[in-house]
Amino acid sequence: MDNLNYGVVGNGRSAALISQSGSLEWLCLPDFSSSSCFAALLDPDRGGCFELACDPQTEITQSYLEHTNILTTRFQTPTGAFEVLDFMPRYKNDRLNYVWPPDLIRYIRLISGQPRVRFIYRPALRYGEHETTTEVGDHYIKSWSNGGKYESIYLYTDVPFEPVMQQREFTIARNHFFLISYNQKLLHIDLESINLEFERTKVYWLEWVDRTICFRRYREEIIRSALTLKMLSYQKSGAILAAVTTSLPETIGEVRNWDYRFCWIRDASMIIRVLTDIGHYHAAKRYLQFILDAIPYKDEKIQIMYGIRGEKKLTERELPWLAGYAGSRPVRVGNAAYMQKQNDIYGVLMDVLYESFTIFRNDLEQGEDLWTVARTLIRTVEKNWRLADMGIWEYRSQKRHFVFSKTLSWVALDRGVKMACFLGKKNYAEQWAKVRDQIRDDIMEKGWNPRLGAFTQAYENEYMDAANLLMANYGFIEPTDPKYVSTVECIQKRLCRDGLLYRYRNEDDFGIPSSAFTVCSFWLVKSLHMIGRKREAREQFEQLLGYANHLGLFSEDLDFEDKRLLGNFPQGYSHLALIDAAIQLSDTEVEEDEKIICRMEHGRHPT
Q1: What are the C-alpha distances in Å from 518 to residues 85, 245, 299, 501?
Q2: Which of 25, 272, 284, 583 is the most buried (most CB within 10 A)?
Q3: For residue range 448-471, what is the model confidence (pLDDT) as tens digits?
Q4: Can you give the pTM of this predicted structure?
Q5: Rounded distance between C-alpha atoms, residue 281 and residue 235, angstroms
Q6: Mean pLDDT of the region 30-45
Q7: DSSP H or E segment with residue 577
Q8: Which residues make up the CATH 1.50.10.10 domain(s) of the chain?
Q9: Helices (H), 104-217
């Protein structure tokens, strides 16, 4: 069974996927959303890769250096052993400015003997649409596109160029390096400078983890997920990506293949909420600045998603020359969902704005700007909450009165009321409280189905929707309320299969969904724990952890039958829900003391 057994390395500018056998199979430069220069992930023949080919009897193992985003792949060949340390440099320089170049470093360290290897360096720029020429230049190997828009990358190495260009067998007798860069380097690159980049990057990640609030239970799973979420943060703008890939299918051979290299307001806001829960408050400040840049005016139409630099037009198109992951076409870039109306995003964003005000208090330099954004959001909700929308799952042609959208509209007004009270704006609080209560009454009247004993997907139907598991999480209803308990039980009965959840089981624009949505399975874990079924929640959580890939990473979906990872990868939504569920499972009176002790052991407040 093929699986998404990839490691991801990144630095806040872009990210690369390295296969379990050490092959580079996905990298876009200079940024996450740029065209690919290696995309064997989407087409083994045309997409481009950088493979290390050894004797067939070679044993290969892979892991992350502890508490870093540096990936190590160890090759035990019949003639010797070596390891490849893959990373993208990230650290602060002497002036405390971030260094995060569009570079991938493959640092080869000899372990024993004289291992032999062939370096198969085969870039394919601009998604492999046209031929890529690769030639030896002045102190580097340069590759460039021969058709369409011009692009180029540079390969620096201390391995002789001839065996690289001719893919001839090479004997590793000492340490070596490869540096793939979007830019031509101005300074000389040698093994000493590569080692310095490695040490600086390692220290950066270790210090970042040291600033993370930890929990004694599921500590390593939380840290790996947090490190993954950090890699999805675009340093330049503060945007948070949904995933680093495009067109990995939700089901093999079907057409639910989307580009996720964008910032969804919902996903990003939930990620920021989780990162603040574990102590990374700076990420919240940077994300809030991204929101201010994206919504500069009071009459600005708020989109459900933006480009990583705040781009508003994300035109979707297909790349018919690529075979697709496991033959799943089409391959798409861009995402037409940016034009959709989804009323739940306002509640998620207002939740983050209110949380930020309470955390930072007088430390928010953009306080007045954020208050203006908050009032803009509330006006939008007041105007739209009664209208049908596309919902959290982005139906492409079906508008409905989704219960989750209504619930998050209530959240928007509720957080607005709390924020107004916090700021002493009594008139706003009183006005918004009336609308909040109207929304609640509407949901209780039209969203609750007494025959089923559950809140349904939409006012118009009797289907279940996993998103309604979040109703208690956002404070719309108490977890002990019989209506919430019965909703959880009904969702579990109708959507759960072997501990995995469908988002919904009714037909959408592309048929009936056939895979499990990973985030929903983690939502069920948290909900079961909240309604008192704690042992069952823990058992399901630990079962879910077993479905991660060999490095503890999750994609968007899971196959019900063979538990194969499906969908874009690594998925921020999945990892934020893992952290949230892990914290919930750790949140008992005994473990709360452990959490406090763990904070004290770090010796300083996370920032």
Answers
A1: 30, 17, 36, 7
A2: 272
A3: 999 999 999 999 899 999 999 999
A4: 0.94
A5: 15
A6: 98
A7: helix 572-586
A8: 211-602
A9: 161-166, 191-210
Domain at 211-602: CATH architecture: Alpha/alpha barrel (1.50)
Which run of H or of E encompasses 262? none
Rounded Cα gap, residues 565 and 556, in angstroms? 8
Confidence of residue 588 (pLDDT cuts 50, 70, 90): low
Q: Are the beta carbons of 574 and 556 closer than 8 angstroms?
A: yes
Say how many C-beta atoms besides its own lie within 10 A of residue 285's C-beta: 20
Angle at 600 (CA atoms; ends 599, 603), nearest 5 degrees: 105
Task: Fill in the DSSP letter of residue 492.
Answer: H
**Vertex 520: Cα angle to 316 and 341 (nearest 5):** 40
Instruction: At 416, list the tokens.
Output: 């607005």
> How would residue 597 be classed by pLDDT, with cut points 50, 70 and 90?
very low
**For residue 298, what pLDDT is reported?**
79
Question: In the prediction, which pLDDT does 94 show?
Answer: 83
Q: For 125-147, what is each residue's pLDDT tens digit?
A: 999 999 999 999 989 999 999 99
d(CA 473, CA 527): 8
- What is the predicted pLDDT for the residue at 194? 98
In sequence order, what E strands does 267-306 have? 305-306
Where does the chain hold its CATH 2.70.98.50 domain(s)? 6-209
Length of the chain: 607
- Rounded distance between C-alpha atoms, residue 322 and residue 315, angstroms: 19
Consecutive H or E run containing 335 = none
Helix extents (H) in 7-107 = none
Indicate the Cα dihedral angle 77, 78, 79, 85, nearest 10°: 10
